[in-house]
Amino acid sequence: MRSREERLGGMMMESLGPLDVAGVQIPYHFRCPISLELMRDPVTLSTGQTYDRASIESWVATGNTTCPVTRSSLTEFTLIPNHTLRRLIQDWCVAHRSQGVERIPTPKQPADPSLVRHLVAQAVDSGLEVEIRIGVLRRMRALARESEKNRVVMGTHETRSALIELAFGDGDADLGVEAIGVLAGFAMTEGEAAGVAGRAERVARLARWVAEGEAMEVRIAAAAVIEAVAVAGGRVALGAAEGVMEGIVGLVKQKGNTRGVMVGIRALFALCLARENRVRAVAAGAAEAVVERVGEMGMDSERALATVELLCRGEGGREAVMEVGGGDGAGVVRALVRAMAGRAGERAAEHAAGALVALVSGAELLQREAVAAGVVTHLLLMVQGGCSDRARRKAQLLLKILRNAWAPLHQSMANSDDFIQAF
């Protein structure tokens, strides 16, 4: 039996007949051998074969280590932009513009690795004036913000290590502020996170930045680094540090800065994955801060809902969440049901259902409130739809909890196949 790569290679070679775009046949050498579509950003591998960048990056990302056409092993994965072919494709598009063919844009190339290494060397060079080094860090931050491709090129261990030393070392304070702004764009390894979370003076500096940073950008950058450290394993040490939780919650409470709120909620969620941090988050006012943001974030509410669910599972969290907006929990229940009905997606609905399980269990008034708000319809859709097993289990559990509150109102539907199959 032929391997997957052999079958794909055969399909590509058999499919080199002319395809078309806007009714115009595409020359086969302008088509990506993987997608068979017009190449928008042609790049050449070490084997000499050219592919569209997005297609070959996807091929490699799924674990393939061979060239799709030649099936030769790829000893290195450098993608060299094929500018000549790209210009020929653009000329072909222009020549057929009258027939409805749109010219492909000139892609912006990722940052040159040699340029990144040069910038890092300048940033750590104590022989240069501080103003020059600050300018270098600002250029690095601009490159990182420009594109995900740039962040991939820049996010090496060497770059991160240099930025960590600049941010948390004993050098110029302004250098540290600029370095944390760049570091905020990268994930961390477990070892790097331990190198931050395991040193009290570094954690204290993060707490100071996120709570007292003179500029909002500094507070946001510190929160992003806190999230990166927490995700990589430093959440317990960070959560226990004085000022960290308070600073993050304070950022979430900020109004008028959507990005700051989003970054703050991501950091809060990462911290609350540690059970012991949930009590600290509740004490810092996280319940009110996050619940009030759920209805404001639209498509970005998934992480906020996940945080509400985690808080409800912590000591005192359920009570703190119920106190938001009146104290009886009814307003929160309605907000969670609305979140399930919104366009935030399956994961958001799952977390809303999980939070509702914690809130309405043993509370008949809240159960009736949830039913009156229309939660049953959304739960049945989750059970009957293609959601994950975990989401389906939460929906089924909540339906069981609500059964007594719901059945008297809709007895005929309660006996239906859809309702019965939910249990």
TrEMBL record:
It comes from the Eukaryota. The keyword Nuclease does not apply. Pfam families: ARM_PUB (PF25598), U-box (PF04564). It catalyses: S-ubiquitinyl-[E2 ubiquitin-conjugating enzyme]-L-cysteine + [acceptor protein]-L-lysine = [E2 ubiquitin-conjugating enzyme]-L-cysteine + N(6)-ubiquitinyl-[acceptor protein]-L-lysine. The keyword Zinc does not apply. GO terms for biological process: protein ubiquitination. Its EC number is 2.3.2.27. Pathway: Protein modification; protein ubiquitination. GO terms for molecular function: ubiquitin protein ligase activity. Residues 25-99 form the U-box domain. Coiled coil: none annotated. Functions as an E3 ubiquitin ligase. This is U-box domain-containing protein. It comes from Dioscorea cayennensis subsp. rotundata (White Guinea yam). The gene is LOC120261263.
